[in-house]
Amino acid sequence: MKFNTHLQNLPIYEAGKPIELVTREFGIDPKDVIKLASNENPLGTSKKVISIIKEKASNASLYPDDSFYELKDALANLYEVSSKNIIIGSGSDQIIEFALHAKANEKSAILTAGITFAMYEIYAKHVGAKIYKTKSKEHNLKELKELYLAHKDEISIIFLCLPNNPLGECPDAKEVMDFISIVSEDTLVVTDCAYIEFAKFKDSKKAINPKELISKFKNTLYLGTFSKAYGLGGMRVGYGIANTEIITALHKLRAPFNITTLSLAAALQALNDQKFIEKTLKNNLEEMKVYEKFAKKNGIEFIPSYTNFITFVFDKKQNASQIADNLLKKGIILRNLKSYGLNAIRITIGKKKQNKRVLAELKKEI
């Protein structure tokens, strides 16, 4: 059977290994498995959210309100924008896909940092678009500007992952705004802010304000998610904020009922539990310092992170893949970054007890 030619060299996104797979493969009790590979919230899900999911479970046979009125209204109040400026997606990555199908094709290109969220490139290849990346791994805005100006007529979308996954770095918001100011109004600039809650909690200079962003630049699309700080990775709810022209175009690509009845209820309730968010952010910042201290003490290079994970980069004497595999056999699931061309491991910041065990086992490997 013949398929579209651009699928031939298209990579498949490698998700973090599930607990069930490790349990089956190594015969480890699920209770003894620590999964810190997919940047999920280690505190789980808000009790208020769990309660509303149970309450709404009897409605699982019904489609959700496809207007997502209540959730859009709540987000609009949070960010001081109009609900007409919001689109809801099955995770923010679905909105990334919408953006690529709306703006890019085989005659255009996208621009990204050297190492960033893999789905930008994968979705770009879905539509046959070319990919330009900076030589620098992180978001080097000077290099991004130079590449953009050199290929201005080709580039239809610029993706800025703020903070960046899988590295964790994040430029200041002012630097980002200065960069966007040189971009043509016909080029869509996507600011993917899946981890922004962690960034602005650590350093207010990193905070991207959606209202300011879309008011100042009509060609911007802000992305947010409930998968990280809000602890709803399994519910798959993301959102985009942009001017109405962009939102209208993206809605033409959205299938009806693209999130579930329970996902909708969970996301709405999650917004109402700010105490859970505060607890999440405090745990993350405190435990991040533990990882940084460990890295410094043991001579491991790490990338200062504004997310809920930290990336350890190993020297040539140490093999990150081997380390990750050895820890996996002990029931510790971390993210090997070999597929990104890095001798590195990305570790989601867990709870204190989890982190203590992870670092104790990691110490044995190095």
TrEMBL record:
Record bears the keyword Transferase: yes
Gene Ontology process terms (BP): L-histidine biosynthetic process
Record EC number: 2.6.1.9
PROSITE patterns: AA_TRANSFER_CLASS_2
GO MF annotation: an example: pyridoxal phosphate binding
Pfam families xrefs: Aminotran_1_2
InterPro entries: Aminotrans_II_pyridoxalP_BS, Aminotransferase_I/II_large, HisP_aminotrans, HistidinolP_aminotransfase, PyrdxlP-dep_Trfase, PyrdxlP-dep_Trfase_major, PyrdxlP-dep_Trfase_small
Source species, domain of life: Bacteria
EC top class named in words: transferase
DNA damage listed as a keyword: no
Residue numbers carrying N6-(pyridoxal phosphate)lysine: 228
Cofactor: pyridoxal 5'-phosphate
All copies of domain Aminotransferase class I/classII large, residue ranges: 31-360
Keywords per UniProt: Amino-acid biosynthesis, Aminotransferase, Histidine biosynthesis, Pyridoxal phosphate, Transferase
Pathway: Amino-acid biosynthesis; L-histidine biosynthesis; L-histidine from 5-phospho-alpha-D-ribose 1-diphosphate: step 7/9
Reaction catalysed by this enzyme: L-histidinol phosphate + 2-oxoglutarate = 3-(imidazol-4-yl)-2-oxopropyl phosphate + L-glutamate
Database matches in NCBIfam families: hisC
Subunit structure comment from the entry: Homodimer.
Family designation: Belongs to the class-II pyridoxal-phosphate-dependent aminotransferase family. Histidinol-phosphate aminotransferase subfamily.
Name of the featured protein: Histidinol-phosphate aminotransferase
Organism encoding this protein: Campylobacter hyointestinalis subsp. hyointestinalis
